[in-house]
Amino acid sequence: MTSSELNSSRPTRPSRPNLAFRELRGQRSPAEFAAAVRRAAREIGERVSCDARYIGRVEAGEIRCPNYAYERVFLHMFPGRTLTDLGFAPRASVRGRRSREAEDAPVGPLASPALAVRETRGAREPYDTQDPYETHERPEESDVLRRAFMTGSGATVAAASLSPFGLAIDATAAERPARRIGTSEVQALEEAVRRIRLLDDRHGADGLYRRAAAPLRAAYALLDAGTTRHATGERLHSGAGELAISVGWLAHDSGRFDDARSHYAEALATARMAGDPALEAHAFCNTSFLARDAGRPREAVRAAQAAQRVARSLGSDRLMSLLAMREAGGWAGLADSTGCAQALARAQVLYARGGSDADPEWMSFYGEAELEALEAQCWSTLGDWNRAARNASRAAGLQDPHFTRNIALYTAELADDLARGGRPDEAAVAGMRVLDLLTEVQSSRVQTMLAGTARVLLPHRRASGVSTFLERHASLPKAV
User: Fold this and answer.
1) Where do the structural domains in the chain lie, given as residue ranges?
2) How buried is 189 (Cβ within 10 angstroms: 0-12 exposed, 13-18 middle, 19+ buried)?
3) How far is the C-alpha of 285 from the C-alpha of 116, rounded, in Å?
4) Where does the source fall among the domains of life (predicted)?
5) Which one of 29, 313, 382, 465 is at 20 to 30 Å from 36 when CA atoms are compared?
């Protein structure tokens, strides 16, 4: 693209600095303020990847209106203020605009074809859109897709929406890059990881797995293409490894354990080649989780212990807490109640130390609700149904509504524990709540758990509410 084409498509009105936002930063550096934003996000269960560059773009007026996640965080940080008070433009005035200027847009395999077509058409204004329910299409198209997410059939709609976000990329194109890989491609890859995680949080994995495999192939083709800078290469390796783990999790949650094992191994190899301990710890963490679910508890313990050895240097107590929880799950699978209790106690102590800036971005799901849920799974595996039910109930009650899939998962755990603990009426009530959530969530893990609960409840089908649950469960469409 020539410089004249770029100039012709820039906004005719220059960005105006956001002085109100700059004033709120005060004496803190952009990096310090970004850290404060991330801490505030964790307080309300949001996930944002705020850094000094983002703060600079806001203050320069490049981001005229934040996405919905950042909006919630900013309003939490500055209660009583509106977006206008913070120096932002009304959302309606910027909705549907492109998020970045043309020279920032990715080229090659991670670029959206629709985006490339529009690069020379008309003026655009910078608009921050990292929210999965925003698109960069025309305003009416944005509204249509947003409504589809709110009213459509769960993961089917989510999967269909991957293409507008640039995730349904052509892997073969990555093998023929137009130029050496640079920052734009790496940023697009990192954004792909975030989008997949956000969609999974809302809708579960079943409708996403096959569509997410294409960007993974392209990511590794980009690795083969090479980069011009060492720092960019490190980010590319890390991004490709995180994408492999994300796709592996989609396979894992969809019951494709062999595929998941392969993806996790790919991520682990990438981490070791790149000398990336954070990525290595993440890969071992997921490998442990998979091993537990696949009936290999001793491997689950070993992988969790390996992850803890790698992660000690990273300075994140929350990460070490999660890894201790993974180890506890392995000990439970081995019917070692002592080893399980010791690992659970260690996880609780580490968690109580609080979060920090060293906590990995991917760990945003690990809050009090997940802590309770993982403990519930341990007691359930050990056959202590009443104790498991108490933890599962707390988990479902604590979970942020944003994580729809996890609410379904925790409630399915509760229903199963209640059923096996001899409380069929309560189990049926919890099971009905899960069935309601399955209109939004497609997760083989949840469906498998619910099927097990239904089998346990069959002898109690005359009990109050149980027959209604069993009939409704039997009417569910069979998984393909």
Assistant:
1) 1-95, 106-123+137-274, 276-366, 375-480
2) buried
3) 38
4) Bacteria
5) 313
Token reading at 392: 């599962």
Q: State the Cα–Cα distance between residues 269 and 262, nearest whole angstrom.
A: 11
Phi, psi of 132 (to 5 degrees): -70, -10
The whole-model pTM stands at 0.60
Note the pLDDT tens digit of each residue in 388-428: 999 999 999 998 877 788 899 999 999 999 999 999 999 99
Q: Which residues contact 67 (CB under 8 A, 6 or more apart)?
A: 128, 129, 130, 131, 134
> Are 276-366 and 375-480 equal in CATH topology?
yes
Residue for token pair 């640079």: 182
Contact assessment for residue 166 and residue 99, using Cβ atoms and an 8 Å cutoff:
no
Distances (CA, A) of 166 to 76, 246, 410: 31, 16, 32
Cβ contacts of 82 within 8 Å, gap of 6 or more: 75
Question: What are the Cα distances from residue 244, in Å, to 170, 199, 429?
Answer: 17, 16, 38
Handedness of CA 197, 208, 244, 224 (dihedral sign): negative
Integer Cα distance of 365 and 404 in angstroms: 12
CATH for 375-480 is 1.25.40
Q: Tokens in use for 266?
A: 């790919």
Query: Cβ–Cβ contacts within 10 Å for residue 6, how many?
Result: 14
Q: Architecture of 276-366 per CATH?
A: Alpha Horseshoe (1.25)
What would the DSSP string read from start to end of 416-459? Answer: HHHHHTT-HHHHHHHHHHHHHHTTT---HHHHHHHHHHHHHHGG
Q: Whose CA is closest to 449, among 411, 403, 416, 407?
A: 416
Q: Is 227 helix (H, G, I), strand (E, B) or coil?
A: strand
User: Rounded distance, CA 79 to CA 152, Å?
Assistant: 33
User: How many angstroms separate the CA atoms of 435 and 450, rounded?
Assistant: 9
